Structure formats: structure tokens, C-alpha cells
Amino acid sequence: MTQPTDIRGAHWLAALRLAASGLPVLPLRKGKMPFGNCPACAQNACGGRPNMKTPGPCTCPAPCHGWAAATTDFRAISSRAWARAWRDAAAVAYHPGGAGLTVVDLDTPDAVAWARQVLPPTRTMATTRGEHWLYRGAMQSVNAVRDGVDIKSTMAYTRWLGPGTGPTTALPEVVRTLTVKEPAAVRQVPQAVNVPRVTGDGKCRHRTPVFLDRGIAMAEQRITEASSGIHATVYRTFLAVLSAHGRCGCLTDAHVARLFTAAQAKGESVRHCTDAWTNARTRLGL
Question: What is the DSSP pairing of strand 101-106 with strand 131-136?
């Protein structure tokens, strides 16, 4: 039987390869949790967040656990402090934001279907429950930006799942808008409204009308199924639709009216719908 080339094992060797490619790495124990890599921080004694996901105010010479421990330094990765961690590791994790990357973590089949309709193609990795979509560019990490979707980038770590397939494309605005929130607004009785569509002169990248129709249907569903934060959900949904379709000139009055109708059915006022649409257009420079 072939023996590991080092007592620290295969995960350590994989971490060295990843670090050489520019990914800051750290070892994970069972349950996808980081190790406490010094006695002072064992069992989260330094006061970090539960399960040592976020480093606490420890007095170690350098951050020793959580996303802040991720490093590309070969000496740190091979240090005595991490030797046992690599030997007992269940997986290798990395800090996407530290490498200028963002991972869209899709945890359900519905989330994957949504991404395939709304997000531009990029490098993907299969997970046990869905997929990771990897983009070039860092941003704020936020969990639960919609059902089954987390954003992993700065101040976060994610498990290494292999090289994936496809080219890595630039982080699109539609992903950044998922984290945007607006203050809550006072709801009023829904009213009929005439909505001006966006007139664009850019080249349409939608191969068939089905792509647009499905995107609008999913946007309607997102608004309709929102159980809280309706105001913010409406704004983020308008922003996502405009980001994907606003520059092509393919949005019609009927498409936009469907979005407004869905928002009003949830109790949003005509004024808020109009303001949210206008604010989304302004943010995107439309």
C-alpha cells in the first residue's frame, strides 16, 4: 500500500498546491469547521464566534483560526502548529476574497436553476447539494441572499471542491445586487399603474424569448414567495432583472408591469414600486 509522502497527509499536499496557485488555504475538521491552531485558542477559548468560524481577540502572533488563518505562506502551512491539523483534517478550505474571488454557493436544485437563468456562465464545482459558481472579483460575504444562495468572498471561507469546469468570468453586477438592501417602506393598497419600459440599444445576448420569460417568471416568484423584507426583496429583484436585461432593450411594458403587479400583490405601494425601479435604473446607469 502506498504511504503518504509526509506525516501531514494528502490534505497538506493539496493545500501546498493550492497556495502555490495563489489561494489562501486552511485545514477543516469534520463538520466543515476550522481548527484552533494554538493552545490559547483551542475550543474557541479566545472568544471568536461559534465553531471558530470567525477569529476572536486572541493574542497570538498571527491569526490562527477561522478565515483569517488562511494563508499562501508555505512556512505557515508546513509549521509545527498546523502539523496535527493537517494530519486530522477532513478537507481543505480557502478564503475566496483573499484571492480576489467570489463563490456563489447554490445549496438547492431550485437555486441552481435560478442561477442558470439569471447569472452569466462561469467556472462551476459540484457540491453534495448543489453547485459553487466561481467569479473573478471580491465582494462582501452574505448568507441567505435568497433561498438556497450564499455569497462567499471576503471574511469567509469555503471548502475546496476541485478545479471545476469552465472558464472563470468576471463578477457580474447582478451578483453584487443580491446583497443590496433598502429601508422598509410603509405599505399601501395596490393600485393599477402604467410602467415605462427601459429602452436600450445594446446588443441582445438572449438567444430566445424563453430566457427572458423564465427570468421574469422567477423574479415574480421571488417577490411572491418572500415572507419578510418585502421592500428590500422588491428592490433587489428589480435590480437583478435590470442588470440582466435592462441594457438590451428586450424588456417590454408587459414584462415590467408583471413585476409591479407582483410587488403590489405583496402590499407595496405604487410610489414604492416606481421609486425602487427608478433607483435600480440609476444604480446601474440606465
Answer: antiparallel
pLDDT in tens, 120-145: 999 999 999 999 999 999 988 888 88
Angle subtended at Cα 68 by Cα 182 and Cα 111, rounded to the nearest 5 degrees: 45
Q: How many CB atoms lie within 10 A of CB 231?
A: 22
For residue 42, count CB atoms less than 10 angstroms from its CB and return exposed for 0-12, middle for 13-18, buried for 19 or more.
middle
- Cell digits for 81? 502548529
Spell out the SS3 assignment of 42-86: HHHCCCCCHHHCCCCCCCCCCCCCCHHHCECCHHHHCCHHHHHHH
**Cα–Cα distance between 241 and 218 in angstroms, integer?**
10
- 112 CB neighbour count, 10 Å cutoff: 20
What global pTM score does this model have? Answer: 0.62
In the numeric block, the cell 471558530 is attached to 52
For the chain, give percent helix, strand, coil, nearest 5: 40, 15, 45
